[in-house]
Amino acid sequence: MDADVLVIGAGPVGLALACALLQHGVSVRVVDKAAGPATTSRANFVHARGSEVLDRLDALGDLPQESVRAMTITTYAGDRPMMRIRFGDPGLGTAAPPMVISQARVEARLRERLAELGGAPEWGSALVGLEQDGTGVTATLGDGRTLRAAWLVGCDGTGSTVRKLAGIGFPGVKISERFLLVDGRLSGQPPLDRWGTSGWAHPDGVLGAMPMPGDQWRLLAYDAAFTGDKPGEEQIADRMRRILPQRTGLPGLRLEEVTWASLFSVHRRLADTYRAGRVLLAGDAAHVHAPFGGQGMLTGLGDAENLAWKLALIVRGLAGEPLLDTYQAERRPLATTVLRGSTAATKVNIAGSPLGRLLRDQVLMRVFSLPWIQRWTTYTTSQLWVSYRRGPLGTQLGGRSGGRGGKPRPGDRVGDLPCHRPDGSVTRLHAELRGRWAVLGDEEAFEAVRARLGEHVVHLIPADGPRPVLLIRPDGHLAGKGSPADLVRWLDGALR
């Protein structure tokens, strides 16, 4: 074997998966068809759940300090503000902030972490073929090389070669015509709010402006009338320059020094399955949806973390292959929910009929100005609410674990609790995970779990005093709680 796991794609999902696997002691190769790292921003918002994943990978670093804390969205009709949404703390116990930051910077930090763990992407290595058997997968690359791994994971985006070669269907529909996407510097008066996103409702289509690090702005505009055949970046930028003052009602607002321009249409697609034998999918290779709400990279990072600890247990001989079925069981329903939400947001934003615009501009604008709706929006988009309580690992003890008892229940996310190590030093839960399980409670339970899982377990004592003994999964979700015998029984059922 060239590696335990071969990851196809060195975007944020592939890099996160590789880092997580290496934390668990699993060997990895990462290949990508691109000649080198991407330098354009693409996605530019990381919600709190995504920041938590980066934190548990020890890959968060200085990203929060580099990011822009643009936590408001103000929608205008011309120069008249119609609605302001303020994002705040959802009250779910996280030490990881949401960030407005370029995807390129997130990927760069993940590559740094991958190097610290002893890995590196192999650029210019396109996958052109794969064959699998009962013990592994043989991948053929464009330069004629072959790589052999026990498992192969496609993190290669919406046009995934892995998905196509594995014969996995990717049904879906087109939701919208073209959106323009431009990063650049803005000038003119009045200056836009650097601490929030601005949006303009206009009969020709919505336009939004989000501040980014380095005095840059991300401009997004729906423009079904722009029908040029494969326009280049300069054509897209020129089009944005023309419609910017028209849509905003700010004749002095100018777009200058464009660093990136692109266009896209919104599609909604979901893979028929996340696994075909020893081949698995994660991120955009498994699901694609509208960018509204910043859910794409966020959902992919969650895929990577969920899959990593399960693959690691199987590779290390501590669990059987049925554990992999829980990856799809836990993650695909979430993708379905995200697809529905982003589709609804797209339809609202591109409403073209007079009635649709009336409902959006006069009814929904008012509703979303309500404080409890704003709290709900923060809560929903953060994905800190995600629970696997109803999944097979949450209910595997005859339904008792997932459905009864006080919170948190098996499958629920556990907040970043303040804890002590056995030597009395202060720490926090999520900082101690990083490729490990955690036992919060007495030493007998810790020793029982370590006997089953090996060295990748840490013993912690909750700072707020005694509570039921908790077994926390490496992705921050509760595995089980109760006596040492209860925890071992959960492990025996889950890892069979």
**What is the residue-mean pLDDT, rounded to a whole number?**
86
Oligomer: single chain
How far apart are the first and last residues' alpha carbons, in Å? 25 Å
Helix content: 25-40%
Q: What share of residues are in beta strands?
A: 25-35%
Anisotropy-based shape: globular
Low-confidence stretches: 398-403
How does this model look, in words?
33% of the residues lie in helices and 26% in strands. By secondary structure, it is an alpha+beta fold. Helix 1 packs parallel to helix 4 and helix 13 (443-453) packs parallel to helix 14. The longest helix has 28 residues, at 322-349.
Features:
14 helices, alpha+beta, single chain, 496 residues, globular, eight-stranded mixed beta sheet, 33% helix
Summarize, please.
The protein has 496 residues and is α+β, with helices and mostly antiparallel strands. It has 14 helices and 24 strands.
Strand and helix map with partners:
Elements: E1 3-8, H1 12-23, E2 28-31, E3 45-46, H2 48-56, H3 63-66, E4 72-77, E5 80-86, E6 99-100, H4 103-116, E7 121-122, E8 127-132, E9 137-141, E10 146-154, H5 161-165, E11 172-187, E12 197-200, E13 207-212, E14 216-222, H6 233-248, E15 254-270, E16 275-276, E17 279-281, E18 287-288, H7 296-315, H8 322-349, H9 354-367, H10 371-382, H11 400-403, E19 418-420, E20 426-428, H12 429-433, E21 437-440, H13 443-453, E22 457-462, E23 470-472, E24 478-481, H14 484-494
Parallel strand pairs: 1-2, 1-10, 2-7, 4-12, 10-17, 21-22
Antiparallel strand pairs: 3-6, 4-5, 8-9, 9-10, 11-14, 11-15, 12-13, 13-14, 15-18, 16-17, 19-20, 19-22, 21-23, 23-24
